[in-house]
Amino acid sequence: MAAKTADELSKLALNGNAAKHNSQTNGTNGVNGHLSDQGDSDDDKDDEVTANGGGADGAASGAAKKKKKKKPKKKKTKATVQSDPPRVPLKDLFPNENYPAGEEVDYKDHNAYRTTNEEKRHLDRTRNDFLQEYRLGAEVHRQVRKWARNNIKPGMGLTEIAEGIEDGTRALTGHWGLEEGDNIKGGVGFPTGLSINHIAAHYTPNAGNKWILGEQDVMKVDFGVHVNGRIVDSAFTMSFDPKYDNLLAAVKDATNTGIREAGIDVRVGDIGAAIQEAMESYEVELEGKTYPVKSIKNLNGHDIIQHSIHGGKSVPIVKSNDQTKMEEGEIFAIETFGSTGRGYVTDDLECSHYALRPDAPNVPLRVQSARNLLNVIKKNFGTLPFARRYLDRLGQEKYLLGLNNLVSSGIVEAYPPLVDIKGSYTAQFEHTILLRPTVKEVVSRGDDY
Ligand SMILES: [Co+2]
């Protein structure tokens, strides 16, 4: 998910909100969610059928009995490879819970000592409670996006695509999110962004959406996985016509530049300058016209804190005087957006993304449906972003009045789609990085991007 630079109007409304977010560095909900041990995958069910089915009836022959003895088969056999579509929980594929590390990068310059420093190594070991959760979430992301990248084709509906990604995420984390509180333990970290062409971010279908992906479309796929509120935020761009290759290459290069420059004590404004330089060294030719690729100047990367996708720090993607430094232990989503348009986004289209604000004011709600809905949101999402579709699947109906009331009361924040000018094309790549005491871990890195 992207962070949009507050414009003057919303700055007023926010009323110093960013500072408040920033001071809140610990998780808000403190849910102790380890993965449930109850296997609920299709896979388990199939095994159940095999184990119980086909047994001999009352007139069992000796042969049948003998056969039974001959097969002291375990009740369940665990899958050792991921299925297609992905439905095997990762705890079955990694029984020792040793999830693969991301790309570990040594710090540079005056921080190079950290790699071998005994004190930092100790700190890394004692503060790594979140590391396995992060690595599990990242492996889920890689396996789900492998399916997505192999299977998403023009002609598919956006709803089908979004549900495919979300069901994969739910199955692999082992959290289908239908029982109260389950989605706070793990599962979908935020709504699946499927933003096409001039739409840069925060578009996901609402109920009844009929949008079909086209051959000439450029689609940003931005989805989140969380385990115990540790959100992996990573995105890529898909296109089906090679004419967009340079646009995608520019943004991939820009994001990798941001990842390379990021580190403890680094000023975010300097990262923005490096990102912009990489991004704007590209151009793209479309229908005989050459377009410079621009960094979208009011979209940013951001820090992530437990259960909150935006912690309060921003990572600009253009040159900036922002002197804010990255610090040890922080987690950042490094995301960049390139555009053939203005390089500036505004709110447009129907909203689908929402999140309970961590600093929600305690105001009396006169609308009954708003009170009920707030209860549902708190119990199922906490401060994690959610989509209208996620309310639908929980059986909520006619909630729009209540939802809008929560937004206007400042309790829930709406994240409407962000668009550049019509006719332009935008692309995005994003990774989550952990600024561990000893190394920078690009936890969501895969062999794809
Ligand atoms: Co993000």
Automatic annotation (TrEMBL):
Residue positions binding a divalent metal cation 1: D222, D233, E430
Subcellular compartments: Cytoplasm
Biased composition (Polar residues): 20-31
Source organism (scientific name): Cladophialophora chaetospira
Note accompanying the cofactor annotation: Binds 2 divalent metal cations per subunit. Has a high-affinity and a low affinity metal-binding site. The true nature of the physiological cofactor is under debate. The enzyme is active with cobalt, zinc, manganese or divalent iron ions. Most likely, methionine aminopeptidases function as mononuclear Fe(2+)-metalloproteases under physiological conditions, and the catalytically relevant metal-binding site has been assigned to the histidine-containing high-affinity site.
Keywords from the named record: Aminopeptidase, Cytoplasm, Hydrolase, Metal-binding, Protease
Chain intervals with Acidic residues compositional bias: 39-49
Name under which the protein is recorded: Methionine aminopeptidase 2
A GO biological-process term: proteolysis
Regions of compositional bias (Basic residues) in chain numbering: 64-78
Pfam families: Peptidase_M24 (PF00557)
Residues engaged in binding substrate: H202, H310
Region (Disordered) residue spans: 1-103
Catalytic activity: Release of N-terminal amino acids, preferentially methionine, from peptides and arylamides
Positions of the Peptidase M24 domain: 134-338
Gene Ontology cellular component terms for the protein in this record: cytoplasm
Biological role: Cotranslationally removes the N-terminal methionine from nascent proteins. The N-terminal methionine is often cleaved when the second residue in the primary sequence is small and uncharged (Met-Ala-, Cys, Gly, Pro, Ser, Thr, or Val).
Cofactor(s) listed in the protein's UniProt record: Mn(2+); Co(2+); Zn(2+); Fe(2+)
Catalytic EC class: hydrolase
Basic and acidic residues composition-biased segments: 1-10
Entry similarity comment: Belongs to the peptidase M24A family. Methionine aminopeptidase eukaryotic type 2 subfamily.
Positions of a divalent metal cation 2 binding: D233, H302, E335, E430
An annotated Gene Ontology molecular function: initiator methionyl aminopeptidase activity
Enzyme Commission number(s) of this protein: 3.4.11.18
